[in-house]
Every structure is written in C-alpha cells, then in structure tokens.
Design a protein that fits this description.
about 280 residues, mainly alpha, 14 helices
Length: about 280
C-alpha cells in the first residue's frame, strides 16, 4: 500500500481558498492524489497578520476544514530542534513536535490584536535577519570568487549545493551556531546532521538563495525567508507536494528538490487543482 502523501500550501495560495468552488476542487485534488493537507505555523502567521478580521476568520476556518483535525506543523526552528534532539539521542524515527498553535486554527475567535501584531513582527524580524545574513554571505562569497579569479565555477544551484555548500567544511560553523541557538546539549555531529533530511532541507534552502544573491550575475527576484523555510515541512515523507504561485519559490524549490529529494513535487495552484480532473 502506498503511504498517504503530504500537501504543503504556500501562503500565497491560501487567499484563493475563499472561493467555495475552489475549496471543493482542492478537496477533490487531495482525494485524487491521496494527499493529506498539513497546516503549518507559517501558514497561520501569514493569515493571522491579515488586517481584516472577517477575512482572517474565513481563511482560518477554511484551513481548519481542510486540515481535518491534523495538528499544525511547528515553526522551522522548533522542527530543527526536535530533529536535533532525535539525532543527538541516536533515535531514527522523527515525530513532528507540537506547535502549540492549534488553538489559533481551531479556536480563531480567541485571536486578538496583540496576536496579529506579534505575528507580523515575527515575520518582519525574521526577514530582516535573513537579509542581513545574505549581506554578510555575499561579501564572503564575492571575496572568495575574486581571490579565485572566477565568476561562477558551479553554473547552477544543484552543482553549488552538491560540490560546495552542503559539505562539512562549509556548514560546520553554521550547524554549530544553530545548535547553540537552539540550546541543544553538547556539540553536533555535523556529518550526521547533514544526513538528516530536515536539517539538510533547511540549510540547502538557504544555500540556494546564497547562490542566487551572491553568485549569479542576473538579478532575480529574491525569495523571502518565510517561503524558503517551508521546505523543511517536506521532510520525513516519501510523497510530498509543495503548492505555490510564487515564481521565485518555484524556481528555488525546484533547484533544491528536483532529482535530489525523492518523491517531491512543486506545483502551481492551478496544476494542483487539475489533479482533481
């Protein structure tokens, strides 16, 4: 029997769910493709920050209906910590930790203006930190390329990830810093963490955006941090589908996932709806 697959919806597709006809098509596609929709903390934060209370309530109720009782997948940082604890303890099976955000999904009437402001502030602060990390990374990468006398020795995101980025020598300091920030005990085994799919997806998403911002000569629309970090939600399942209409996320997600992570697909919203036909 083929295991049920996982559907992750990018926030920019959620607004389309206000149409009842579209919602029924989504349910049909879930049945046809044998997928389960798993709501995420990023989904909720994006919807909760919506300024219109009536629209916010409609969207959250729609997400709750599609989720069919499934828990909310936690913030990427919380997922990283749980996976780090699993690897550190020598366990093989990963269980998604509680997000403690289910009340927002199933009791949205409790959401106040304080929560709306906090959701927006969290997303804005994460984006500011992400942009600062990229400014620092760009300086280092450009200096490295200048010293080597080359412009782009890799030629593509997958080649950059495979030969340069996703290596112990490149990511050891990043993984150690993340380990400390997450307040995990001891020191990380960098090789083991790179073999963990969730950690690898997290850092390869960042690595792909580093390549685009620091190496590629053409100017591409940057991918936002809340978009690219959704890749971690694809971890741990053989069949997993990310649905988005964000061109930048489609570009980067395909570069990271295609022929590198078995069982993954990136679809536009219309392509996903076509699965029902």
């Amino acid at each position: 029997m083929v295991p049920v697959g996982t559907l992750i919806l990018d926030a920019n597709t959620i607004w389309q769910l206000e149409d009842p006809v579209v919602r029924e098509k989504v349910k049909g596609s879930l049945r046809s493709a044998d997928l389960e929709f798993h709501p995420t903390a990023i989904n909720l934060l994006e919807v909760v920050r919506t300024g219109n209370p009536a629209r916010r309530l409609r969207l959250i109720n729609t997400l709750a209906s599609l989720a069919a009782g499934f828990p909310v997948r936690p913030l990427p940082s919380e997922a990283l910590k749980a996976a780090g604890e699993m690897v550190g303890a020598g366990r093989d099976a990963f269980t998604w930790p509680e997000s403690k955000m289910e009340w927002m999904l199933y009791e949205p009437e409790r959401i106040t203006s304080v929560h709306v402001q906090a959701a927006g502030s969290m997303l804005d602060e994460q984006q500011a930190d992400f942009d600062q990390q990229h400014r620092t990374a760009r300086r280092h990468v450009r200096r490295y390329l200048k010293d080597k006398g080359v412009k782009d020795p890799w030629g593509s995101v997958p080649a950059f990830l495979d030969s340069q980025w996703t290596t112990t020598s490149q990511l050891d300091s990043f993984i150690e810093a993340a380990w400390e920030t997450l307040e995990l005990p001891g020191k990380p085994d960098v090789e083991k963490m790179l073999k963990n799919e969730l950690w690898r997806l997290y850092f390869e998403g960042f690595g792909a955006t580093v390549y685009e911002r620091a190496v590629q000569s053409q100017s591409l629309p940057p991918v936002h941090v809340s978009d690219i970090r959704q890749l971690v939600y694809l971890a741990g399942t053989f069949r997993r589908v990310l649905v988005t209409d964000d061109g930048g996320l489609i570009r980067v997600a395909n570069a990271v996932l295609r022929q590198r992570y078995e069982g993954t697909r990136v679809l536009t919203f219309s392509q996903f709806l076509d699965l029902a036909s």
